[in-house]
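Ticket #4471: structure export looks truncated?
Reporter: QA, pipeline team
Priority: medium

Steps to reproduce: submit the single chain below to the structure queue and open the exported record.
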Amino acid sequence: MKRMNKKIYLFLVGVLVFMLAVSRLFVLSEKNHECDGEDCPVCAIISVLEKTIAAAVGAIVVAAAFKFVFCAVLSLEKRIEKSGETLVNLKIKLSD
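Actual output as written to the record:
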């Protein structure tokens, strides 16, 4: 089941990267178009795509930071569990 989930996640990441790349290519190709004025549909699409790309990049950065912190905490937790240090092992007397 985990293999299937991994394949699905990789496929979805690939689709996301492909969509971002195509969007960015459209923005770059239409950057110097002949603008019709204030209600230019190409300018509206470019604006929406730039906002979408910025939001997607921000979400990717936040997800990567979350993953890094999660892995770091998990690693520290495993290291503490492996050390086997408890108050009894350390022979610490807790007197209140």
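Status: closed, not a bug. The export was complete when the record was re-opened. Leaving a note from the reviewer for reference: The two ends are 51 Å apart (CA to CA).
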